[in-house]
Design brief:
Rossmann fold, about 50% helix, 21 helices, five-stranded parallel beta sheet, alpha/beta, single chain, binds adenosine-5'-triphosphate, binds magnesium ion
Length: about 475
């Protein structure tokens, strides 16, 4: 764009559409001169003799640029500028000031004016300033479009993520949303399981129908059954009238059974039956009701282990686990952290009325290095807390909870210590990798040795050497 600007014929603009300019000056002669000059250069021009007149024209004319004198009787250029900004008008403002009034011009720049022109001016100067401003605006728009593009790519319904493993989940959701198959979403607490369930619903043709979430672990066993299936009046002491259950509520939509691992065994049998013939029966009722419900379940538990321990029916497990989606913990997808931080800051600024503009590097580093056992929810709460505590418009380390400030990555600490010994530093790294591998394989040493690409014997030796006992 920059080079192209030089070869443009006079009278053309770098924008395809004609740009509109509002000229504001109390001197009639000057308004005339500028109007002629700018029209000859291809702009559409309106003029106003005062700040007030200008404001009256702004909405109807919709200028891209406002060229205004600073000093005018009654409302001057500075007040006009301030009013435009306050109204959220995004026209680019250029001020003109007579020699000797440079202070006012500088003040205008501080107030958000793009540039200033000193009077008396040469015609070329005005045109050149405008061209510069146009170019800048074009860049700004391109940037905005680019940012928008990135944001779209890293957003799937309400889920924000750029990490490859989350992007894979986006693709899976898009693929499976349309089918009525049950989906089992697993992942640690706060990792985003419910968001995944909601995204599946919204991407399916059931989006017009209800999304009904229920936390199976939060409702007492004796109430859960009637909650899910409904009851007939008189079915039990408190059943004072007929009641629809959540399966019926979710008819035509999606029922999200959260914490499915907590479902009592007796209800597991009933659920299996519903899944098989899509019929439910209210408590105390003699007839079945046909329902059309897509079931999505979620758990932070390891259902295979629950099955082995006899707490979860194997047949139901297989029925639910047709399409498993595992949401990885935040520490395994740190690339998502900056995106989430930015999102939570923007959202909280709007919600809390704060004006946080970012964070210092120490704070940023701590947020990247922390292990986030509470996952995205913990990050969300951390940001909110820090924003409330912040004193300036930047978050600093002191605004973070102690557990985050203290939990430093051992490798970073080693590197920061100035230690130059390769041997000592490698040991710190080796220990960290072994700990991570053991964590990932839940303590399975054979699998850990495989991912570490060392022999099983070497691993056992190193576990002893580093005294790794807490796994
Ligand atoms: N990728 C993400 N982008 C934006 N917000 C997210 C993301 N993941 C999680 N969140 C937010 O974090 C919080 C926790 O997410 P969610 O409730 O989906 O987690 P969960 O896995 O269901 O947790 P739990 O196991 O505790 O029920 C919510 O406020 C959610 O909006
Ligand atoms: Mg949840």
């Amino acid at each position: 764009m920059r080079n192209q600007l030089l070869v443009l014929a006079p009278g053309t603009s770098i924008f395809c559409t004609v740009r509109r300019i509002l000229v504001v000056d109390d001197e009639e002669n000057l308004r005339l001169v500028l109007r002629t000059l700018l029209r000859r250069n291809g702009y559409e021009v309106e003029t106003a003799a005062s700040g007030e007149d200008a404001l009256g024209l702004v909405d109807s004319f919709g200028p891209d640029f406002v060229i205004t004198d600073v000093r005018m009787p009654k409302m001057g250029g500075l007040d006009l500028l301030a009013t435009l900004k306050a109204k959220g008008n995004d026209a680019t403002v250029i001020v003109m000031s007579a020699y000797g009034n440079t202070d006012l011009a500088l003040e205008a720049m501080k107030g958000g004016a793009y540039d200033y022109i000193q009077k008396p001016f040469k015609p070329d100067e005005v045109v050149l300033t405008l061209r510069k401003a146009e170019e800048r605006e074009l860049l700004r728009r391109e940037n905005r479009a680019l940012r928008e593009e990135i944001r779209k790519e890293h957003r799937f319904e309400d889920i924000l993520a750029k990490s490859p493993n989350m992007q894979a989940i986006f693709r899976t959701i898009a693929k499976i949303a349309e089918y009525k198959t049950t989906v089992l979403v697993t992942g640690e607490s706060g990792s985003g399981k419910e968001l995944v369930a909601r995204a599946i619903h919204r991407r399916s043709s059931r989006r017009g129908g209800p999304f009904v979430p229920i936390n199976c672990g939060a409702i007492p066993e004796n109430l859960l059954e009637s909650e899910l299936f409904g009851h007939k009046k008189g079915a039990f002491t408190d059943a004072i009238s007929d009641r629809r259950g959540l399966f019926e509520e979710a008819d035509g939509g999606t029922l999200f059974l959260d914490e499915i691992g907590e479902l009592p065994l007796a209800l597991q049998v009933k659920l299996l039956r519903v899944l098989e013939d899509e019929k439910i029966r209210r408590l105390g009722e003699a007839r079945d009701i046909q329902v059309d419900v897509r079931i999505i379940t979620a758990t932070h538990r390891d259902l295979t282990a629950e099955t082995k321990a006899g707490r979860f029916r194997e047949d139901l497990y297989y029925r639910l686990n047709v399409l498993p989606i595992h949401v990885p913990p935040l520490r395994d997808r740190r690339e998502d952290i900056p995106l989430l931080i930015e999102h939570f800051i923007t959202r909280n600024n709007a919600r809390l009325g704060t004006n946080i503009r970012g964070m210092d590097s120490e704070c940023r580093r701590l947020l990247y290095e922390y292990s986030w056992p509470g996952n995205v929810r913990e990050l969300e709460n951390t940001i909110e807390r820090a924003m409330v505590l912040a004193e300036g418009d930047q978050l600093v380390a002191a605004d973070l909870a102690e557990r985050i400030r203290e939990a430093r990555d051992p490798v970073q600490m080693q590197l920061a210590s100035g230690e130059l010994s390769v041997k000592k530093t490698m040991r710190v790294i080796e220990e960290l990798l072994i700990r991570r591998a053991l964590q990932k394989t839940k303590g399975n040493r054979t699998r850990a040795a495989e991912v570490l690409e060392i022999s099983h014997r070497a691993l056992l030796y190193k576990i002893k050497d580093y005294q790794i006992t807490d796994l």
